[in-house]
């Protein structure tokens, strides 16, 4: 980590591995264990609201989560939040729909209202198929974990290059 200030890159996975494909985010972090350099890894968070305070002042926050809606199971979607938009965060759409009580989009809106946003936020979503109770990812989501991990690695490298 460079400097004594806030981390430049923060990575978080939102999801519950006990709800099948909702564990996609934590599975991506597990795939990347030890490969994220100086990025601050917040770990697997049970709720998107756990992002609040943890990402304050970061140059880049990468949030990995399983998504539902019209997203094809196993599809990896990358959504960069446009912080210049007065709404600031995407609405609950297919790219941000969540099996959590509150989704990532609601946490982003709350962070904007509190003035605690990172400079840049990128959401990496993996289309889920089965959000029922139980352990284990569906085959399509399991196959997407490596692709999502590659996306996260690229974003982290780009974000860390800014401070070097």
Give the proportion of residues in helices: 25-40%
Q: Which sequence of SSEs, written as H and E, runs from N to C?
A: EHEEEHEH
Strand percentage lies at 15-25%
Uncertain stretches? 88-100
Dominant shape = globular
How would a textbook summarize the main sheet? Answer: 5 strands, mixed
CATH class categorisation? Alpha Beta
* Domain count: 1
Distance between the termini: 11 Å
Brief characterization of the structure:
This protein has 164 residues and is α/β, with parallel strands linked by helices. The protein contains three helices and five strands. It has one domain (9-161): HybD-like (Rossmann fold, 3-Layer(aba) Sandwich).
